[in-house]
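Researcher: Here's a chain I'd like modeled. Treat it as a single chain, no partners, no ligands.
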Amino acid sequence: MTLSILDLAPISSGGTARAALLNTLDLARRAEASGYRRYWLAEHHFAPGVASSAPAVLIGLVAAATGRIRVGSGAVQLGHQTPLSVVEQFGLIDALYPGRIDLGIGRSGQRRAELAAKAPPTEPTFGAPASASPVSGEVAPPAVDGEAGRVVDGLLIPPPFDWSRLAAHPHLAFQASLLQQPGARTPDFAEQIDEVIAFLTGEHEAHAVPGEGAEVELWILGSSGGQSAQVAGERGLPFAANYHVSPSSVLEAVEAYRQAFKPSKALAEPYVIVSADVVVAADDATARELAKPYGLWVRSIRTGEGARTYPTPEEADAHVWSAEDLALVKDRIDTRFVGTPDAVAERLRVLRRVTDADELLVTTVTHDHADRVRSYELLAGAWDGRS
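Model: Modeled as a single isolated chain. Structure tokens:
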């Protein structure tokens, strides 16, 4: 199977973290039964609607609940931890579940600081008073600044989202300060990756126990053609590119990675996984209904509030959208794959063809757990011809 899953352990409106985590364990078992290749857990903090705040802990629980599927992080944010602590955590899990663990790493801390430095001096403002019609399903909001993006061989590449305003939000800066010890300095990302590799291979002057010699598969995740793609390529590591988070730069990211690639002990040639947001149902109308809350959820993330508990379709219908808010979520709404199994599978094949991805990493969030499970099962059937 060339499909894998990214799970945020979403907390639904009216639900609890406990319920979300139990749902994750259930979904992982069902994903394994459906033939998915990997099951990755995200790392998010201060998000009322996300229970995946400690991926290493959750990975251990998912690995224990399954028997064959690879389990990993998408991604550990290395800016919040030391390379040693990460290697020890994943080395411990690998000692119990050898050959099944993926260590996906991102550079969130450094990236946030770089973007914040580019932000305008005025305090960012989001969420103007409501004055527009609701957004639901795949209804496309107005274009951002008159731009509609471009279509590359059937794949929509929307205009870029301005992350600098969000990165400079005072609330996010405060949260970032809580993720590190006071006065702590995050080293250069490339240096940190080299240290992770040295600990894993036993080439470091200190020895990580457990961790040294672990069979973990090391991945780099990135949203642009910047340092993450460069580091992954230069060190001959597999690379995960985010179409679902930053669709405007996915082609730039995979191209930069391939251009920088040098063969290593891990890989003889580049290996790419590309992510996508997906909702599948038996018919289009049901899929669009299940997809309604997504825009409202993305809005909560991009206004700096942190992902809210995932709304019901009825709660989504009740929200009145401003033009500014519609523009805020447009690229994510436009690039979500919503529909019947065969229709979504075909659109995913376009994504794979255009990016030349070796695998796709799909993430699905719906309010009801049963709908999310069914979406993944239907997609797996359509992807390998069982539908």
